[in-house]
Automatic annotation (TrEMBL), chain A:
Transmembrane segments: 7-30, 64-85, 97-120, 126-145, 183-205, 228-246
Source organism per UniProt: Nonomuraea maritima
InterPro entries: Bact_Polyamine_Transport, MetI-like, MetI-like_sf
Keywords in alphabetical order: Cell membrane, Membrane, Transmembrane, Transmembrane helix, Transport
Membrane topology classification: Multi-pass membrane protein
One of the protein's GO biological processes: transmembrane transport
CDD domains linked to this entry: TM_PBP2
Localization: Cell membrane
ABC transmembrane type-1 domain segment(s): 60-246
Family the UniProt entry places it in: Belongs to the binding-protein-dependent transport system permease family. CysTW subfamily.
GO annotation, cellular component aspect: plasma membrane
Name recorded for this polypeptide: Spermidine/putrescine transport system permease protein
Automatic annotation (TrEMBL), chain B:
Name the record gives this protein: Spermidine/putrescine transport system permease protein
Species this protein is from: Nonomuraea maritima
GO cellular component: plasma membrane
Organism domain of life: Bacteria
UniProt-listed Pfam families: BPD_transp_1
Membrane topology: Multi-pass membrane protein
Compartments in which it is found: Cell membrane
Lineage: Bacteria, Bacillati, Actinomycetota, Actinomycetes, Streptosporangiales
Family, per entry: Belongs to the binding-protein-dependent transport system permease family. CysTW subfamily.
Ranges that cross the membrane: 21-43, 83-102, 114-136, 156-181, 212-234, 260-280
GO annotation, biological process: transmembrane transport
Domain ABC transmembrane type-1: residue ranges: 77-283
InterPro entries from the UniProt entry: MetI-like, MetI-like_sf
Keywords recorded for this protein, A-Z: Cell membrane, Membrane, Transmembrane, Transmembrane helix, Transport
From TrEMBL, chain C:
InterPro entries referenced in this protein's UniProt entry, alphabetically: SBP, Sperm_putr-bd
PROSITE patterns for this protein: PROKAR_LIPOPROTEIN
Entry protein name: Spermidine/putrescine transport system substrate-binding protein
UniProt-listed Pfam families: SBP_bac_8
GO biological processes: polyamine transport
Keywords carried by this UniProt record: Periplasm, Signal, Transport
Molecular function via GO: polyamine binding
Source taxon at top rank: Bacteria
Amino acid sequence: MRRSKLLYVPFWATYVFLYLPIVVLVVMSFNSGESAYSFEGASLRWYGELAGDERIRDGLVNTLIVAAGSTVIATVLGTMLAVGLARHARSKLLDAIALMPAVLPDLVIGIGLLVLYGALQFTLGLYSVVLAHGMFATAFVAAVVRTRLTGADTSLEEASRDLGAGPVTTFLRITLPQLAPGIIAGALLAFTLSLDEFVIAFFTIGNDDPTLPIVIYSMLRFGVTPEINALAAILLLVSFTAVIAGQRLTKIGERGPRAQD
Amino acid sequence: MKSEVKARPVSPARGRRLGALVFLSPGLAYLVVLMLVPLALLLSDTVFQRGRFGGIVYEFTTENFERLLDPLYLNVVVNSLKLAALTTLIALLLGYPTAYLIAQLPRKWKTVALVAIVLPFWTNFIIRVYAWIMLLSGPGLVNSGLKALGLGPIEVLYTEGAIVTGLLYSYLPLMVLPLYAAIDRLDPQLREASANLGASAFTTFRKVTFPLTLPAVMTGSLFVFVPSFGNFVIPELLGGSKSIMVGNLIRDQFLKARDWPFGATLALALVVALVLLLLAQSWMARRA
Amino acid sequence: MSRTRFTRRLPATMAVVGLALAVAACGGGSSEETTTVAADQLKPNADLSKQSLQVTVWEGYLPEELPKRVKEKLKVENMNIAYHDTNETAMAKLTASGDSGVDVAFVSGQYAQALNEQGLLEPIHPELIPNLANLYPEATQLSYDKGNKYSVPYTWGTTGICYRSDLVKTPPTSWNDLLKPPAWADKKVTMMTTERWLALPALKALGYSVNTDKDEEIEKVREALMAQKPHLLTYDDTTFGDRLVSGEALMVEAWDGWCPTTNEKQNIKFVVPKEGSDLWVDTMVIMKSSKNKEAAHALINYILDPEIHSWAAENINYKVPNKAAMDRVKIAPGSLLGITPAELLNGESIIDLGQASTKYSRLSADVKAK
């Protein structure tokens, strides 16, 4: 396959662009001063503070619960929506509805949900954030999976149906494996978007213990300290380790031919 | 490859209806309850008046729609369009080659490259923005780099350049991931056939690869354009509030002015514009 | 959804009450109204062990161990604190649904006024808060809520110019030093972004009231702010202190409590410009939807205890309107805690202007749009 060397310029530019601030952020985690954006000297002070900070720790746990819960909902419902829209119902209106949460301003979603939950006399809590995040993430998953479905080769699915399989069996045995890369990309997106979402979470969490972004926003009035940088540095380290370890592990079980390519 | 077999145990029409019911109803029900109903509740406010101290007076008025025509707001819309479009264009120019090369990577590196795209976003937004403030500020890294190259210092922070940088940084993954999902699906035989027929790499890209990934280009562009258009934090933190966007206007109506009817009207205008975009996107996707 | 209907016009006088008058009138006046509202349902001897408290407040604004101490001391069943980042988001949360579950909220004075106008606040029952007697007399006559009918002040202060005394050529004395920065401060000044405080320096420099609703005065303010914009570093009302520390900015518009004057090495000073300024008050209010009103009153009473209330002055450097509490605080020379109530009352307190407040939203959008 011929590939122009020129393509590597934007490729590496993307990664440099994405990681340049991350380097700064990690460096700042060793700041001895109080400010998250002016460096005064090197120290491990904020790692120590982090170890004893319950609010940050609880916030992180709640954030992970919300992100995991909403990613599961969004991945399942989003994938089903994408398949249904691409294979079973052709409607521009339904297409638009499925994409809409991804394009509504977060503030409109947040306040709208607050009004709805209020009208329903719903007691708010972590679960109402899971439902809210799951809602907009569904749209993202559906759209990403759709990009893999449109124009895809449907002969295998047709063959499956011809052989007597129902839509669900066909979906589980044929469509799903073909869609896997799209589903993974969609789930990654859903998880990532939920982790850092503030506005919708703020309005739908009620008086439950806050997620991490809410904790950090509420700190703004008295200054965000490099403690958050220390937390980020640790999270990055853990994630990188997990990804590299995962990659080492999958390498072993990966001799067979690819499903598609 | 299309099957011509006629005898099917499940009739296609019935299979399709059943499939539609099974696959669509849970997701659509979810979206209707949690998105359309709240949206309808908010949008019903557009025809009412703001109470003197916030809240809503239920007296009919068309004043909110008249206020949409205020040149001040039109200016903000035009400016937002410009910044969001520029962001989307750069995201596409960076994101397409990136997604393309990720899709060509050996499988074991693919996931790593993909996760590496989203990993920066697992850190908090505020500190990512602070990192950019440090990079872009007067004595910051960007200017130090320029100085090393013999170029004069430039003023970046608190300009529209900083806003575009921040928006691009926030939404680039939303461009890369759909593109990756689409490019990865392409049959390499198509490109080989094209090459065998004597087409140059560029011609193959232009005539084969790009048209097949056009729906994903549209999806990715929409994912970058729309939140850029509605963002209000980046124009404040990186743009220094010196050049606000539609998102700031809507936020200010709901939170600062406590003028929900007009906030809802602005949001409605935004939603209508976006639905038109979505319909265009859906039309392009169906055609491809 | 509880959205209340408001067609009643407030007497225009309310909008422009001078604070000097307020001080003069201090003392009598309000008692007959407070007794009429106090007569209803609340029981002074209610069993607090069946009540739980939900508070919403800014992060770091109350002592961390307060919930524990409140549980021990007041014997309430539970106390939980939620945090909000700004007055604005707190308002949206408190007004969007009928019952936010919040019993006691901390918001600034003009926001308390707006909540009350929307019928969302429980009148304060003074007989349940004997510690109200600890407040400075001035603190009971604030123009957004004369007689503390629905709010109790927690902290107060003013707005001025916070600056680097080692880097400025001449210390600022006037709002015009900020509005028309000298060449050495070009692009090294910041202004607040919240609309009423965005307008404040120009309003005062031009000799207008901070509560003006006259179009021609607001237009003059717009012109001044547009002229200033090219010489501004940024609009900012959260991190201006850091900007002075790093030297990125030399002069910033700041609330006194946010101006980091305590570290001598940083050479940061605060001045109230000669044209005058505002008086801001952060207050405690009880929501009408609260089901724990006796406990809410008991909490406010407990916070007004000099030992608890002095915490804010000692730990977050905010002045508290509580004489008994301030008497306990050692005030270092040069500390902004030394600003006296009488000096504070030279400032004009910002009140919610009702319909006219949208003029300030438009002004803010107009100045900030490209």
